[in-house]
Design goal:
The complex is a heterodimer of chains A (537) and B (130). Chain A is mostly helical and 537 residues long. Chain A has 20 helices and two strands. Helices cover 43% and strands 19% of the residues of chain B. Classes of the chains: A mainly alpha (537), B alpha/beta (130).
């Protein structure tokens, strides 16, 4: 019962008035940015990174976790009431949710989304509390070669699996790794990519990079697309559910959780794939398949549960391995580093109280979110009437303040603008933001593990596959990289197959359409919001 | 010659439209319906959506009124759009709906109606919601 007593200690820490206050601030902020398309938790956490200089680590992480969970809740409100996903993870919710709202069942859609998120978030957090220590036990035995392999897997998987174009993904990853390289080589002391500029010798601060790509890039993008025909929010009363709705919702919630958690925990899982899988599953299992496409409550309940469970799943590799699998987690990893806390398997032993307080705060945050979202969803939707010039002016102000406060160097503001322009260009040309941010944050850590491995093996590259786990991971990487080739081969054989069984092909059609939707959404998410990588926030 | 009406999907806007239809029928002139938004927010409840516009279209068509419906989204406020349209089409009359506003609210938000009343070059007919 070690886990249980640690968790209770965590609750004691998280429920102190100050920490509780930060949890409340976190969930309020998170819901707000979740509701607003274009803003996401990753951008918000990046903007708030400078507060880590004054806040205690525990309070800061409690707030960040609240923002992360809150973003997942808020995204569904926009999806349902506006048919514009607030986050890329709510793209699937919009399919049925908006249909329900148009049919006058917005209240039920909002309720099943909020309660499903609560159920999934709570189960997911419980799974996190149980599994993270187990993963840690396993992870402690890993050496540098295995770490290197796992991190490479995470980078490649995020780049190759998510998003619509591998080429764009790898271009973005390359940019991120290059930005991560700037500065003095830690082993030999050589200057890399500093262009003779002494101010670059310390490397680019992650706050400046993250704020520039997420906030400045997004603000420029919005400024370039300011005029668009406004929409109307579907009017809705207080969310509630009838008996029939409960009956039809609880199974999708549990199945969504089962999809979401493992996918969130995997590198490259993200929240988009499980929400999509959950939608397809519910469609197949539903007793009311004719309602799908016209507002089936299962199609809202399942995906919404899946994205919250995925959020909890994401925390597992972050806390147990120091491995972020989406943009928000990556920025939180940067926050750990800025506190001088070494993320990785040692985290649970060296920072036990912090980690358990963080996990406890996830339970509390979930509960708070249910309370503020269930009765207040229509109020949150009012945020969408905010004129965007005011909103983005405020964001740019905080972005500038944050970037300057890191080193009190005017040079950082130049970097902010240059990287912000890069962020704008990436959105313009459809490059996903997530690989870049993971490259910047994981790049130096990967390099550290690589150098360590090579030093241990005295420069012999064979040291890279000296551990069995490393070999296994390399095989997975090979499969991921070769998969598109295989896929093409299968495709080539397909016309023959489809002639033989036209019915089967037709059966697949709706799936393809739905998937097209998802990739588009996730790309928009990556490109527009995500900010989040996990959201078109 | 035309009659310009500033339309918003509210009781005031409906009243203005009804009055404008009556005027247009009386003089058999073209009715120009303006419903605009600055377009800088994602949601603007004063910008009529497709079904509403279709409803108006049908209503005008069945009553046999020559009409044009415009929904400019150019970043100008509603007053500027209505005044622009009136000038461009050489309007003989502008019809607008008035709503009650507290003095403080008017101080902070300004008043679209007031601007139209003061700046229009043609007669302005202001109606209230019943």
């Amino acid at each position: 019962m070690d886990v249980f007593s640690s968790l209770m200690d965590g609750f004691a820490t998280a429920l102190t008035p100050m920490n509780f206050l930060y949890a409340v601030i976190g969930v309020l902020l998170g819901t707000a940015v979740g509701v607003l398309p274009g803003l996401g938790p990753a951008m918000t956490v990046a903007l708030l990174l400078p507060v880590t200089y004054v806040l205690e680590p525990t309070s800061a992480f409690i707030m960040f976790a609240g923002i992360y969970y809150g973003g997942m809740y808020g995204g569904s409100t926009t999806s349902i009431l506006l048919n514009t996903p607030g986050e890329s993870s709510s793209v699937v919710t919009a399919i049925e949710g908006n249909k329900m709202a148009k049919a006058g069942r917005a209240a039920q859609a909002l309720a099943t989304a909020a309660i499903g998120s609560f159920v999934a978030g709570t189960i997911g957090t419980a799974l996190l509390a149980v599994f993270a220590p187990i993963v840690v036990k396993f992870a402690v035995s890993l050496g540098s070669p295995s770490y290197f392999a796992i991190m490479v897997l995470a980078l490649l998987a995020v780049t190759a699996v998510l998003g619509s174009s591998r080429l764009r993904g790898f271009a973005s990853l390359g940019l991120g790794l290059a930005i991560g390289l700037v500065g003095i080589d830690s082993v030999t002391g050589q200057r890399r990519l500093t262009f003779g500029q002494p101010l670059l010798a310390d490397g680019l601060d992650i706050v400046v990079v993250a704020v520039a790509i997420f906030a400045v890039g997004e603000a420029l993008w919005v400024a370039a697309h300011l005029r668009r025909n406004p929409l109307q929010v579907i009017p809705v009363g207080r969310p509630w559910m009838g008996k029939q709705d409960w009956k039809r919702s609880w199974k999708p919630w549990l199945r969504g959780t089962a999809f979401g958690f493992p996918f969130g925990a995997l590198p490259a899982g993200g929240a988009e794939i499980p929400t999509f899988l959950s939608y397809v599953t519910e469609k197949r299992l539903s007793k009311h398949p004719e309602e799908f496409g016209h507002g089936a409550i299962e199609g809202v309940a399942g995906p919404e549960a899946a994205n919250n469970a995925a959020a909890a799943g994401t925390m597992t590799p972050l806390l147990a391995l120091g491995l972020p699998t989406n943009a928000t987690a990556a920025v939180m990893l940067a926050a750990f580093t800025s506190y001088g806390i070494q993320p990785g398997p040692q985290l649970f032993s060296s920072q036990g109280p912090l980690v358990w307080a963080l996990i406890a705060s996830l339970f509390i945050g979930n509960f708070l979110l249910l309370i503020i979202n269930l009765p207040l969803a229509p109020l949150w939707a009012k945020l969408l009437q905010l004129p965007r010039p005011y909103l983005y002016a405020g964001i740019l102000f905080f972005a500038t303040l944050g970037a300057y406060s890191v080193n009190l160097q005017a040079f950082d503001l130049v970097l902010l603008l240059v990287l912000g322009a890069l962020g704008f260009m990436m959105r313009r040309f459809g490059l996903p933001v997530l690989p870049l941010i993971l490259g910047v944050i994981l790049g130096p850590r990967i390099e550290g593990q690589l150098r360590k491995t090579l030093q241990l093996s005295a420069g012999d590259p064979a040291g890279l596959w000296s551990e069995p786990i490393a070999i296994g991971v390399y095989i997975i990487i090979a499969i991921i990289l070769i998969w598109p080739l295989l896929f093409k081969l299968i495709r080539r054989n397909r016309p023959a197959t489809s002639l033989l069984s036209p019915n089967a092909t037709r059966g697949n059609e709706p799936t393809d359409v739905a998937r097209g939707n998802v990739t588009h959404g996730s790309q928009r998410g990556d490109a527009t919001t995500d900010g989040d990588g996990d959201g078109d926030g | 010659m035309t009659i310009v009406v500033g339309y918003v999907p509210t009781p005031e806007g409906e009243a203005a439209l009804t009055q404008a239809i009556a005027e247009a029928r009386k003089t058999d002139t073209t009715l120009l319906v303006i419903n605009s938004s600055k377009g800088d927010a994602l949601v603007d409840n004063r910008y009529a959506q497709e079904p509403e516009i279709q409803g108006i279209e049908e209503r005008l068509a069945t009553q046999g009124i020559k009409h044009v419906i415009k929904q400019p989204v150019r970043g100008h406020d509603a007053a500027a759009e209505v005044l622009d349209a009136a000038e461009e089409h050489n309007a003989e009359l502008i019809v607008i709906g008035l709503r009650r506003r507290s003095p403080v609210g008017k101080l902070i938000m300004g008043s679209v109606s007031q601007r139209i009343l003061l700046e229009a070059d043609c007669p302005v007919l202001a109606v209230k919601a019943n």
